[in-house]
Amino acid sequence: MNNKRPSKIVLAYSGGLDTSVILKWLQEKYQCEVITFTADIGQGEEVEPAREKAKLLGVKKIYIENLEDTFIKDYVFPMFRCNAVYEGFYLLGTSIARPLIAKRQIEIAEIEGAEAVAHGATGKGNDQVRFELSYFSQNPKIQVIAPWREWGLTSRSKLIEYAEKHQISIAKDKRGEAPFSVDANLLHVSAEGKVLEDPWEEPKEYIYTRTVSPIDAPDKPTEITIDFLKGDPIRINNKRLKPSKIMKKLNFLGGENGIGRIDIVENRFVGMKSRGVYETPGGTILLTARRAIESITLDREAAHLKDEIMPKYAKLIYNGFWFSPEREMMQSLIDKSSKKVSGTVRLKLYKGNVIITGRKSENSLYSESLVTFEDSESDYDQSDAKGFIKLNALRLIKNNLK
Predict the structure, then answer these.
(1) Cβ-based burial of 383 (10 A; exposed 0-12, middle 13-18, buried ≥19)
(2) Cα separations (Å) of 254 from 137, 159, 225, 287?
(3) In terms of CATH, what superfamily is 8-79+94-178?
(4) Do 226 and 345 meet the contact criterion of CB atoms below 8 Å apart?
(5) According to the model, what pLDDT value does residue 169 have?
(6) Which end of the chain is less packed: N or C, by CB atoms within 10 Å?
(7) CA 17 and chain centroid, separation
């Protein structure tokens, strides 16, 4: 790792208060060129203002890129092929975005000949780990600058004081203590901190931005179909859409039906527990639909193996090991299992619920002639079950005789 004073730094820049202060602080401390990179991954707000703020702060080279389709196609969909859920509830919305941003940041550093990259993650959170593990996986020699671990701006008031001193614009709702921290992308919106720090306090309705309350959702269910090809969704209601449009449509449908809200206390990789309120409407629908199409297209032991490795896979993503060899090995297995996961799922969306009402596939392993209670011609002879049961009971009988 290079610790020399860099001549150029590439900063992951949102345009918000924190990264704007970081931008100025980097310019002052390192006396070098700072290049900004803003990734549009569906955060739901205009990214162009980030360009104007960067210009006002003297930045000459500004990268603003729409990576929505790359995010969904190359990161979210592969993750969903594993049905990944962390600690039973979290669909990894923030976790899966960081490796994409970090990878592109390193590519820009190489293009610009920058020796260092910087991020705005705090020293208490998971994102610092996710960014930096991803950086080093792409360039082991890159210098990483994490201002929150280095500077003396240890409080919100000090941050605002620094911003005012350097004439950095501050959004009105950022003056004083921010009510909570928000991170958003096309997969989810997360809220943490401040008014959410007490896990006994119920989240106020104003915290939610992507979903209506299930209580206030329509009294009539919304019925939809989702078509899958090799494990990935390709159509909604018979209309083919590109990956980002699939997620946007599912977010809209889920949001208006109050789907995808969770309030959890999770175990951070850095060692503490944290409370988070997440909205993942489209992802919640997608996960339920995927499991439905897998239920008729996946072999029993293949399905069970996926369920066994899923917690390990989810933990790798949560902890920042997307680019690790073990995640890539697991991905190969998962992708192979998805080759025949094609077909159609029918669902009803109703007041926070995703209800499966049908599933069909040309690759279906489900056989009506085998499962029917009526007489049928099949290879299954019910009398064979007697020997099957006796063989499986043998060890239980022997243990009981002792």
Answers:
(1) exposed
(2) 36, 37, 13, 12
(3) HUPs (3.40.50.620)
(4) yes
(5) 81
(6) C
(7) 24
User: Which residues are CB-neighbours of 276 under 8 A, at least 6 positions away?
Assistant: 90, 190, 191, 192, 196, 263, 264, 265, 266
| Helix (H) or strand (E) run with residue 290 in it | helix 281-297
pLDDT the model gives residue 175 = 45
Helix axes 300-319, 281-297, angle to 10 degrees: 150
Both structure tokens of 98:
């960081």
Sketch the domain layout of the chain as residue ranges.
8-79+94-178, 183-298+340-360
| Tokens 């949001």 -> residue | 255
Strands (E), 50-106: 62-66
Phi, psi (deg, nearest 5) at residue 202: -70, 135
Structure confidence by residue, pLDDT tens digits, 333-343? 999 999 999 99
Distance, in Å, from the CA atom of 219 to the CA atom of 222, rounded to the nearest integer, reads 10
Q: What is the mean pLDDT of residues 92-105?
A: 98
- Decide: 61 and 88 in contact? Cβ < 8 Å: no
Task: Cite the active site residues.
Answer: 18, 98, 127, 181
Give the tens place of pLDDT for each residue, 359-374: 999 999 998 878 777 7
The verdict on domain 183-298+340-360 having CATH code 3.90.1300.10 is no
- The continuous run of DSSP H or E covering 355 comes out as strand 353-360
pLDDT digits (tens, 9 = 90+) for 268-304: 999 999 999 999 999 999 999 999 999 999 999 999 9
Contact 277, 207 (CB under 8 A): yes
Helix, strand, or coil here: 67?
coil
